[in-house]
Sequence to fold (183 residues):
Amino acid sequence: MTSPQATKILSSIVANFPPPQETTTSVTSASLSWGSWGHPEMCHRPCVYILKGSQCQQGALCQFCHHGQHSPIPKLDQNQRARVQRLTDGELLGLLIPHIREQAKAAGVLEQAEDFIRTLEGKMPCTENSEINNMPRKELCKLKKTLRHMNLTALVKLLPAQYVTDSYQKLRSFVAEPLKFEL
Fold:
């Protein structure tokens, strides 16, 4: 997100974000960031600067989570990433939508996520699952197990950019609403 348009969009989103405050976790002087929205269900990966105990230069504009306590977010291994990259858009959507729905349900935002999920389903072309059908069963099970443990944001990041719509940002904003009162 380094283009001027992306920076402009990010700045407009951050404008509605609650003012950063100091946290009282094990990390000192860690201000909340844009990447912290929806912590822990929908936040981004933790900021390495905050994890190391130093100050993040980007502050509230940082795309990564500034909460001190962060459980590890599983990620795809090299073979899984290669498999996912070979999938067609339809196959990828077909693989991810059930996991996105399950994570939204676990986070208690399934009703709010339905708009985003319906948007994804509407864009899913009717294709054969040739790559998925050709995947060895053991690899497919391992891939699905990893996907099952990823949070919503990590799953959405696997989608092609054209499928990530404003409805997902609205969902993140909805989940972030309670944070304004917890700060």
Q: What stands out?
A: The mean pLDDT is 75. The chain has two domains: 4-61, 78-171. DSSP finds nine helices and no strands in the chain.
